[in-house]
Amino acid sequence: MSDQKKQEKKNEDNQPEQESRRRFLKNSGLVAGGIVGGGLLGSFIGNPFTKDITTSNKDERPKKEFTETRMFFTRFEDFFVLEAAVERIYPEDGNGPGAIGLGVPYFIDKQLAGPYGSNKFDYMKGPVQEVKVASSYQTLMSRGEVFIEGIRKLNAESLRSQDAKFYDLEGEQQDEILKAMEAGEIGLRGVKGPTFFNLLRQMTIEGAYADPLYGGNKNMMGWKMKEHPGIRPGYSDLIEEEKFQIIERMSLKDYQG
Amino acid sequence: MAIKLDKVDVVVVGTGWAGGIPSAELAKKGYKVVALERGRDHDHSDFVGSKDELRYASRYEIMTDNSISTVTARGTLDEEAFPLRTQSENFEGNNVGGSSVHWSGVTQRGRKFDLQARSITIDKYGEDKIPADMNLQDMGITYEELEPYFDQFEKTAGTSGEDDPMGPPRSDSYPTGPMRPSYPVKLFKEAASKLGYHPIMIPSANLSEQYENPDGETINACQYCSFCMMYGCDFGAKSDPVATVIRTAKKTGNYEIRTESYARRVIHKDGKASGVLYVDMRTGMEYEQPADVVVLAGYTISNTHLMLLSEIGKPYDPKTGEGVIGKNSAGLASPGGSATGFFEDKKFNLFMGSGSLGGTFSDLDSDNIDNSDLGFIGGGICEIRQRGSGPIGSNPVPQGTPRWGKEFKEKSLHYANRMLSVGFMSPSFGWKFNYMDLDPNYTDMFNDPLLRITHSVTEQDKKFSEYFSARAEEIMKEMGADIIEKGNPPQEWRHTQGYGETSGGVIMGDDPKTSAVNNYSQVWDMDNLFVIGASALPHKIPQQTGTLGALAYRAAEGIDKYLSDGSGLLVEKKSNAIKA
Ligand SMILES: Cc1cc2nc3c(=O)[nH]c(=O)nc-3n(C[C@H](O)[C@H](O)[C@H](O)COP(=O)(O)OP(=O)(O)OC[C@H]3O[C@@H](n4cnc5c(N)ncnc54)[C@H](O)[C@@H]3O)c2cc1C
Ligand code: SF4
């Protein structure tokens, strides 16, 4: 091994997040051999990819929108756990894409980066009490903080009980952990497990069906599966029809023009 | 120290129907009116292209900011109340027009019973029919006396409807014809007719045709666009204060709305109100707006909160039953009664619709039902609605389906356009132990105590719901559903503001010992203060807004009378000596 190779190997072994690295490389279209440093910037040094840009106008990266980039989650690993969890909540099936295919993880990431994630319009004064009503949001943590806590506890529970990361488990095993979270059997600090789970479930559904402008419901596929036309000006001409109407889908982009 | 502004004739807190109606009526008569509105400015141009379910329905775009204030909630007197923190647990309309903008638009009239619940119940069934802890009260006005004001409200709003053979008598037909029925509504009407009921289209503020109201304001024809409840109307076709009374008031040149102005106190001395203390939310500066007459029209929670904070009237005490402010909080967990049906061989266009598109009948309402052999008082107004389902909010699955995962996805897609439900809108009564007061632990942004709501569900509610769920089930069966699920009786208040139809707190009556305002919405203890809205209802009236619109027209008339001839109290006090 050349010195450089050795150094690269060392760097790779040192990566706390092997999976992160692997996925990062895959997603960005970089070749593994190009790694020289620990940080993202380092990855680009001496990379064949750089050459591609200068020599060709073709973008050979897998098709990804600029918005499919993390805005809120800092750790790769947290995001992988999120992806795995939402896909179990809304899986890909014969009807069409699941949460990942619909862009739900990025939808959630963006929502948590905005006012909803920081509970801008909510009452956040203490103290927090034990309450009987399970659906009530009783914590001073923001939704963003609740997600980080909840996601990490999903992974910690996975490591504890299965000796593997959450996203490396089989689907059924992931379901067991999600059910334990939903039932309040996994202890979280500062917030109840069901509060996190309900939020996760709700935001998964939102990401599947909200207008694509928010980063989910990719290509209006959520609406297609639901046979919902999305945003139409109105249905005055059709309201009395007894036959079910399949209507071309439109999004706010089309509607606002 | 608050900065004192120039005096005006009338200062009104709120710009919904309850505040907008007297503002328009008084400004038209030449009075100088200033409205204080905690939210932002709003007009029709804000709603053009607003068809965004996430933003408006899931993220409560035009609703109250709970970081400023919210309510606390508990079931019983011995519990500690906790704050409702998120907008999904507690929301009301904010901004010009208030909840009267995002409402669905079902425009019912209160029934004879609703206005004289106590005396009618005693007349029909004797006093023993009234449960010991129920604060059943008359409002000090009859349906016949209020009828002209109902008519006036409907003409301003352009209400679309058809005559109801079982409804209360009317002096005139609806100003516009009924909406057009969708397939589910037709199915409902057929089924209800077969069962002997008299179904009609729901009286609606989503107008069936373009209409010009007596003030010269034009409301357009509804497009059945489905982005209705929780939204402002894209087409100016939903009758709301922004399209009508606010516009009318502005045209007079006598009306000014101050937005982002949060009212915190009614200022008063020696039994007279002198103005309103408010905060400019852009600067945090405090102002005092002096006026000859003060109107509170900020909806139930705000009206009650301001009365308690301003220390006007005697706070209600649930232990003794004495006092009036905060009494009879209701509408938080209306018992209702419903049935849901899933259809295998029919698929409906549920993504179309409008807030108040639907069918209804009054055969079992509080005026028509015979409660003799029933373990409850009052009746329900039947409704099927086709509001237009949003894909985020509508994920119908039969009971027993998991809440997430493969099966949930499969079934929620399958039933997305195959689920209908029929329900009964019920009154929700005042009980000795259900009330509002100031919370001892939690405070708002200004460090004022939050309003605390104590509310629990009663046996009467459960029996009501059981009875009406059974009736709804019969209708659903007749409609041909394959799977029918009867609604469960309410077991406990879920501690949310529910569908935003709270009532009570500053209730109307003819005896100052048991009520806070008279039938002109004038405060017994302070004759130049008028508190208008659903806060006046001693029990929640199903689909209350038509009634509060009528009460607001009557209040406007009273204020004019008060200002023009200095009449003092407009109604003579009575002492009914009913047990409180
Ligand atoms: C989702 C939903 C659907 C509904 N659908 C129907 C229906 O179909 N039929 C029906 O009959 N009813 C319906 N309602 C109820 C209806 O919206 C209300 O009864 C009605 O709007 C109340 O009118 P209001 O003028 O009293 O209050 P609002 O319209 O809410 O107006 C009050 C105004 O006062 C302002 N305000 C409050 N406090 C302060 C303060 N301290 N300082 C300054 N400003 C303040 C508010 O911001 C608001 O603008 C619905 C309610 C909701 C939430
Ligand atoms: S359904 Fe009708 S009234 Fe409601 S928002 Fe659409 S056009 Fe307006």
From TrEMBL, chain B:
<dbReference type="Pfam" id="PF00732">
    <property type="entry name" value="GMC_oxred_N"/>
</dbReference>
<dbReference type="Pfam" id="PF05199">
    <property type="entry name" value="GMC_oxred_C"/>
</dbReference>
<dbReference type="InterPro" id="IPR036188">
    <property type="entry name" value="FAD/NAD-bd_sf"/>
</dbReference>
<dbReference type="GO" id="GO:0050660">
    <property type="term" value="F:flavin adenine dinucleotide binding"/>
</dbReference>
<dbReference type="GO" id="GO:0033717">
    <property type="term" value="F:gluconate 2-dehydrogenase (acceptor) activity"/>
</dbReference>
<comment type="similarity">
    <text>Belongs to the GMC oxidoreductase family.</text>
</comment>
<keyword id="KW-0274">FAD</keyword>
<dbReference type="InterPro" id="IPR051473">
    <property type="entry name" value="P2Ox-like"/>
</dbReference>
<protein>
    <submittedName>
        <fullName>Gluconate 2-dehydrogenase flavoprotein</fullName>
        <ecNumber>1.1.99.3</ecNumber>
    </submittedName>
</protein>
<feature type="domain" description="Glucose-methanol-choline oxidoreductase N-terminal">
    <location>
        <begin position="218"/>
        <end position="328"/>
    </location>
</feature>
<dbReference type="InterPro" id="IPR000172">
    <property type="entry name" value="GMC_OxRdtase_N"/>
</dbReference>
<dbReference type="InterPro" id="IPR007867">
    <property type="entry name" value="GMC_OxRtase_C"/>
</dbReference>
<keyword id="KW-0285">Flavoprotein</keyword>
<keyword id="KW-0560">Oxidoreductase</keyword>
<feature type="region of interest" description="Disordered">
    <location>
        <begin position="155"/>
        <end position="178"/>
    </location>
</feature>
<feature type="domain" description="Glucose-methanol-choline oxidoreductase C-terminal">
    <location>
        <begin position="434"/>
        <end position="542"/>
    </location>
</feature>
